C-alpha cells in the first residue's frame, strides 16, 4: 500500500538585507596545455544578496578570454521553520593561455555595498602539448552506491526536453523524484547551478503530487520537484549539475514494538546531464544582432515630445517576446548630429506562461538636444534569431521626433506661438563701413581741463563773494571802489553839457566831479574841508604835491569860471576836460 | 595665401581691410577674414572689427579667441546688443558652463554701471564735475533754492559716472583672461610636476591673480584657483 505523501516546499522571497559575501575564484585545473582551454569560475555567494556587479578581472596578459557567461542559483533550505536563501552567482570565463610557463592569475575584485572583496591569486602552469584527458567529472560517485536504503529504490531523474540546442535557445529541464519508500520531510540541499546558462525556474510547485509509474519494470511513486527553463550562453558541451535532496525515509515497522517504524535521512542526487550547445549560424548574421533567440517585437517611444531648457528626453525602446529576453544586449542607436544619446538604463521583466519564458526588456536612453529645433530619431534596427524558422529576423522601430527649445539661449524659449525654432547661432557680422570713429580703452588727458576750469571758477566765485562782503562792511573801500565808476558817469553827463554849450553848468559839474572823486577815493568829507585842509590830508596820504597842485588848479578854475564867465576863456572847455581826465587817471 | 597677404599689407586703410575681411567672411574663408581684421585692428581699434573678428574665430571653433574679441568689443561699445548676445551665447555654448546663478541685484548693478563705456564715463565725469563747479560758483554768488536742487542732481550724475569709470578701471586692473586652448590642465603650483587640480576648456573666463615662471595663477568665478601655462590664456586688456 503506497501512501500519498504531501510535502510542502515553501519558497519565500525575503527582502534583501545587506549581507556578507563569499567571493572566490577557482579554475577547473591548474595545468593546461597550450591550445587548450580552462574555466575560471568566479563565485559570489551569500545570504540574501541583491544585485551584484560583475567582478573586475585582474590583468590577463598571458591569457585570452574566449567567452564569458554567468549563472545564478538560489538554494533555499527550510530547517526548523527557519528559512535561509543562499544565492550563488557564477561568472564563468573560458580562458586559453597564450604561451607556456608558470603564470599567476591575480586577484579578482568586486565592489559590493561599499566593500571591496578580493579573491586569492591562482597559479597556472601552461605546458606544451595537451594534458591527459581530464578524468570525466563524476560527482555522482558511480562506484559507490548510495547508502542503504537508496539505489534503485529512491533517486532523482533529470529530464531535459532535448539534449542538443542552439546557443540561446530554450530548453526545459524537469527534475523528478522516484521513490518506492514512504517519505517524511524533504529538504532541498542544493539546486542545480546552471553554469553556462541563464536559467529560470518555471514551476510553482507547492505540494508534491505523487503518481504511480513503472520505470525499468518497477513501480515507483513519482513526483515533479522542479522545472527549469534554461538558455545556454556559450556554445559547446555544457553540463547541468545535480540537484541534491535530503529525504527522510520512513521504513516500515519490523515488529510489533516498532510501531511507527524508523526513519533516516538519505541524501540523493540527480545525475549530471550534458547538453550539446550548437553555435548560431554565422552566415547572414546581421550586424545589429543583439543576442536574442526566440520571437520578439520591438517598440520605441519618447516620454515627452518637447524638451525645454536642455532637459533630456527619454527614448524608451522595449523588446518583448519569448526567448532569452534577459540576454538581449542594448540596441545600437546610431549617433545623430546635435543630439547626445547617453547610456541606457536597462530594466527587464520576466514572466512565464507554462514552460515558455516571456518578458519585456526596456532600455531607457536619455537624449539631450544640443541645438534648438525639431529632432528626428531614426529607426532602430534589432535582429534576433528565430530558432523555429532557423533564420535571423530584423525588427525595426518607428521614427520618432521631438522639439527642443532653450537649449542654448533662454530667450528663445519664449518664442513659441507657432514659430518653429530650427537652431541657434551667434549674431551675424557687422556690415561694411565707410569710416571708423576713433575708439579707445584709455582715457584722453584733455578732459582734465574741466577739472582745472572747475577749480578756477569756484575760486573766482569765492573771491567775488569776499569782495562783495567788503563792500558792505568797509565804507572807505566801497567809496574808493566806486569812485572811478562814478567819475566816469559824471564825465559822460559833462560831455553832454559840453555838446549843449552849457558852459556854466559844465564848469560847475566838472569841479564837483573832480572834488567828489577825490573825496570818494580817499574817503574824505570834501564839502566840509577847506582847500588848505584838503591839501594837507592828501599830502599826508602820500599824494604827489605837483599833481595835487594841478588838480586843485583845475577845481579852482572851474569854480571861478562858474561865477565869472570871462576867466573861463583862459581855459578852453575841451582842454580842461582832457586835463582833468588825464590827472584823474594819474591818480 | 602669401600673395594675398602681400595685397593685404599693401593697403593701409583699416576700413578697406575691414570690408575685405567681411568679404572673406561671407565666402566662409574665415582664416583670411581673421588676418584682415587683425591687420585692421593694428591700425584702428574699433568695436565692429573686434566683433567681426570674434565671429570669424567662432566659426573656426576657437571659442576662447572669440570670447577675448567680444570682450574687447564690449569695452569699446558696451550698449551693442549683438556683442552682448554673442557673449551670452558663447557662455552657454562652451564646455565649462557658468554654474553659479547670478544674483539679480548684482547683475542689474553690473548692467547699470556698464551702460556707458570707459571713455564716455570719464568724459561725463569731467563734464558733470565742471557743471557742479559752475553751479557751486553761482550758488556762492546768488544763493537761490533752485540752484541747490540742480546742483544736487549734477553731483549725483558726477558720482554715477565716476563709479562707472571706477568699475571699468577696476576691471582693467583685474586682469581678466580667457582660456584659448581646447583642454587645459591646471596644477596646484607653477609647473607640470605639481598635482592636477582641474581641467578647464576653451572659452572659460578667469582672473589672473599672480604670474610666476611662465605660469599664471588663475581664479575661476566660483573661487577655485590653480596654475596654468601662460600660453593657454589670453588677457582681455593687453
Estimate the mean pLDDT confidence of chain A.
77
DSSP strand content of chain B: 15-25%
Chain-averaged pLDDT of chain B: 87
Q: Over all CA atoms, what is the radius of gyration of chain B?
A: 22 Å
Q: Which band does the percent of strand residues of chain A land in? A: 35-45%
Order of helices and strands of chain B: HHHHHHHHHEEEEEEE
Morphology call of chain A = rod-shaped
- The beta-strand count of chain B equals 7
End-to-end C-alpha gap of chain B:
28 Å
Secondary structure tally, helices of chain B: 9
The major beta sheet of chain B can be summarized as: 5 strands, antiparallel
Q: Kindly provide the radius of gyration of chain A, computed on alpha-carbon positions and rounded to a whole number of angstroms.
A: 61 Å
What structural category characterises the helix and strand content of chain A? alpha+beta
Termini Cα gap of chain A: 166 Å
How much helicity do the residues of chain B have? 55-70%
**What oligomeric state do these chains adopt?**
heterodimer
The portion of residues assigned to helices of chain A is: 10-25%
Number of helices of chain A: 6
Topology, number of strands of chain A: 30
Entry keywords:
heterodimer; A: 587 residues; alpha+beta; seven-stranded mixed beta sheet; 6 helices; rod-shaped; B: 238 residues; two-stranded antiparallel sheet; 7 strands; 59% helix
Report on this model:
The complex is a heterodimer of chains A (587) and B (238). With 587 residues, chain A is an alpha+beta fold. Chain A is 19% helix and 39% strand. Chain A contains 6 helices and 30 strands. In chain A, strands 21, 23, 24, 25, 26, 28 and 29 form a 7-stranded mixed sheet that branches. In chain A, strands 10, 12, 14, 15 and 16 form a 5-stranded antiparallel sheet that branches. A 4-stranded antiparallel sheet of chain A has the order 1-3-5-4, with no helix packed on it. In chain A, α3 (503-522) packs antiparallel against α5 (545-563) and α5 runs antiparallel to α6 (573-586). The radius of gyration of chain A is 61 Å and the shape is rod-shaped. Chain B is of the alpha+beta class and 238 residues long. Chain B contains 9 helices and 7 strands, in the order αααααααααβββββββ. Chain B has helices at 2-10, 14-26, 30-43, 47-59, 63-76, 81-93, 104-112, 118-142, 145-174, and strands at residues 176-179, 183-187, 196-201, 205-212, 215-219, 225-229, 233-235. In chain B, strands 6-5-4-1-7 form a 5-stranded antiparallel sheet. Chain B has a two-stranded antiparallel ribbon with strand order 2-3. In chain B, a hairpin with a 2-residue loop joins β4 (205-212) and β5. Classes of the chains: A alpha+beta (587), B alpha+beta (238). The interface between A and B is large, with 38 and 48 residues.
Amino acid at each position: 500500500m503506497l501512501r500519498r505523501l504531501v510535502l510542502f516546499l515553501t519558497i519565500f522571497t525575503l527582502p534583501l538585507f545587506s549581507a556578507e559575501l563569499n567571493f572566490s575564484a577557482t579554475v577547473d585545473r591548474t595545468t593546461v596545455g597550450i591550445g587548450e582551454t580552462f574555466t575560471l569560475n568566479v563565485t559570489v555567494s551569500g545570504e540574501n544578496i541583491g544585485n551584484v556587479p560583475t567582478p573586475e578581472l585582474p590583468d590577463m596578459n598571458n591569457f585570452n578570454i574566449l567567452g564569458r557567461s554567468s549563472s545564478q542559483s538560489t538554494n533555499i533550505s527550510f530547517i526548523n521553520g527557519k528559512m535561509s536563501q543562499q544565492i550563488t552567482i557564477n561568472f564563468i570565463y573560458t580562458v586559453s593561455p597564450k604561451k607556456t610557463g608558470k603564470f599567476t592569475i591575480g586577484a579578482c575584485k568586486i565592489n559590493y555595498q561599499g566593500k571591496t572583496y578580493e579573491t586569492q591569486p591562482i597559479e597556472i602552469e601552461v605546458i606544451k602539448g595537451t594534458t591527459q584527458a581530464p578524468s570525466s567529472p563524476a560527482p555522482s560517485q558511480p562506484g559507490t552506491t548510495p547508502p542503504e536504503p537508496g539505489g534503485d529504490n529512491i533517486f532523482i531523474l533529470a529530464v531535459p526536453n532535448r539534449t542538443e540546442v542552439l546557443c540561446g535557445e530554450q530548453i526545459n529541464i524537469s527534475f523528478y523524484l522516484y521513490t518506492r519508500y514512504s517519505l517524511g520531510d524533504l529538504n532541498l540541499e542544493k539546486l542545480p547551478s546552471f553554469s553556462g546558462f541563464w536559467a529560470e525556474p518555471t514551476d510553482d510547485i507547492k505540494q508534491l503530487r505523487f503518481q504511480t509509474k513503472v520505470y525499468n519494470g518497477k513501480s515507483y511513486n513519482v513526483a515533479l520537484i522542479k522545472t527549469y527553463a534554461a538558455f545556454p550562453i556559450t556554445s559547446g558541451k555544457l553540463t547541468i549539475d545535480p540537484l541534491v535532496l535530503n529525504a527522510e525515509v520512513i521504513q516500515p515497522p519490523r515488529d510489533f514494538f516498532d510501531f511507527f517504524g524508523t526513519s533516516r535521512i538519505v541524501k540523493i542526487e540527480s545525475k549530471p546531464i550534458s547538453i550539446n550547445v550548437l553555435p548560431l549560424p554565422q552566415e547572414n548574421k546581421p550586424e545589429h544582432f543583439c543576442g536574442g533567440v526566440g520571437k520578439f517585437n520591438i517598440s520605441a517611444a519618447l516620454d515627452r515630445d518637447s524638451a525645454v531648457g536642455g532637459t533630456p528626453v527619454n527614448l524608451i525602446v522595449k523588446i518583448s517576446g519569448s526567448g532569452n529576453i534577459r540576454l538581449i544586449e542594448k540596441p545600437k542607436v546610431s549617433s545623430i548630429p546635435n543630439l547626445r544619446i547617453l547610456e541606457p538604463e536597462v530594466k527587464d521583466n520576466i514572466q512565464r506562461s507554462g514552460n515558455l519564458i516571456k518578458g519585456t526588456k526596456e532600455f531607457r536612453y536619455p537624449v539631450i538636444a544640443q541645438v534648438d529645433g525639431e529632432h528626428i530619431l531614426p529607426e532602430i534596427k534589432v535582429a534576433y534569431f528565430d530558432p523555429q524558422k532557423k533564420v535571423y529576423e530584423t525588427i525595426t522601430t518607428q521614427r520618432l521626433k521631438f522639439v527642443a527649445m532653450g537649449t542654448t539661449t533662454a530667450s528663445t524659449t519664449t518664442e513659441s506661438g507657432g514659430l518653429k525654432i530650427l537652431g541657434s547661432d551667434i549674431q551675424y557680422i557687422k556690415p561694411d563701413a565707410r569710416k571708423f570713429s576713433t575708439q579707445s580703452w584709455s582715457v584722453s588727458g584733455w578732459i582734465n581741463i574741466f577739472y582745472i576750469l572747475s577749480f578756477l571758477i569756484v575760486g573766482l566765485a569765492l573771491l567775488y563773494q569776499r569782495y562783495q562782503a567788503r563792500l558792505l562792511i568797509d565804507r572807505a573801500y566801497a567809496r574808493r571802489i566806486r569812485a572811478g565808476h562814478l567819475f566816469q558817469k559824471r564825465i559822460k553827463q559833462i560831455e553832454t553839457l559840453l555838446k549843449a554849450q552849457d558852459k556854466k553848468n559844465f564848469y560847475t559839474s566838472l569841479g564837483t566831479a573832480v572834488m567828489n572823486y577825490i573825496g570818494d577815493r580817499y574817503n574824505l568829507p570834501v564839502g566840509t574841508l577847506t582847500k588848505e585842509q584838503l591839501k594837507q590830508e592828501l599830502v599826508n596820504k602820500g599824494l604827489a604835491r605837483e599833481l595835487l597842485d594841478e588838480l586843485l588848479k583845475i577845481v579852482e578854475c572851474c569854480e571861478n569860471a562858474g561865477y565869472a564867465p570871462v576867466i573861463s576863456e583862459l581855459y578852453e572847455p575841451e582842454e580842461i576836460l582832457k586835463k582833468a581826465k588825464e590827472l584823474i587817471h594819474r591818480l | 595665401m602669401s600673395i594675398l597677404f602681400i595685397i593685404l599689407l599693401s593697403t593701409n586703410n583699416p576700413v578697406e581691410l575691414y570690408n575685405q575681411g567681411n568679404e572673406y567672411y561671407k565666402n566662409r574663408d574665415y582664416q583670411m577674414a581673421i588676418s584682415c581684421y587683425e591687420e585692421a585692428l593694428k591700425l584702428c581699434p574699433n568695436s565692429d572689427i573686434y566683433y567681426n573678428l570674434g565671429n570669424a574665430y567662432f566659426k573656426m571653433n576657437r571659442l576662447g579667441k572669440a570670447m577675448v574679441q567680444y570682450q574687447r568689443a564690449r569695452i569699446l561699445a558696451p550698449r551693442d546688443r549683438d556683442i552682448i548676445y554673442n557673449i551670452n551665447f558663447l557662455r552657454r555654448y562652451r564646455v565649462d558652463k557658468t554654474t553659479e546663478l547670478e544674483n539679480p541685484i548684482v547683475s542689474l548693478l553690473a548692467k547699470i554701471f556698464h551702460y556707458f563705456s570707459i571713455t564716455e564715463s570719464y568724459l561725463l565725469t569731467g563734464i558733470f564735475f565742471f557743471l557742479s563747479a559752475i553751479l557751486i560758483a553761482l550758488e556762492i554768488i546768488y544763493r537761490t533754492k533752485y540752484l541747490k536742487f540742480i546742483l544736487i542732481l549734477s553731483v549725483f550724475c558726477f558720482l554715477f559716472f565716476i563709479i562707472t569709470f571706477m568699475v571699468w578701471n577696476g576691471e582693467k586692473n583685474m586682469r581678466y583672461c580667457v582660456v584659448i586652448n581646447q583642454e587645459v590642465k591646471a596644477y596646484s603650483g607653477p609647473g607640470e610636476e605639481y598635482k592636477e587640480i582641474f581641467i578647464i576648456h576653451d572659452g572659460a573666463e578667469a582672473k589672473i591673480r599672480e604670474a610666476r615662471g611662465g605660469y599664471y595663477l588663475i581664479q575661476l568665478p566660483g573661487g577655485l584657483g590653480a596654475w596654468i601655462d601662460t600660453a593657454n590664456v589670453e588677457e582681455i586688456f593687453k
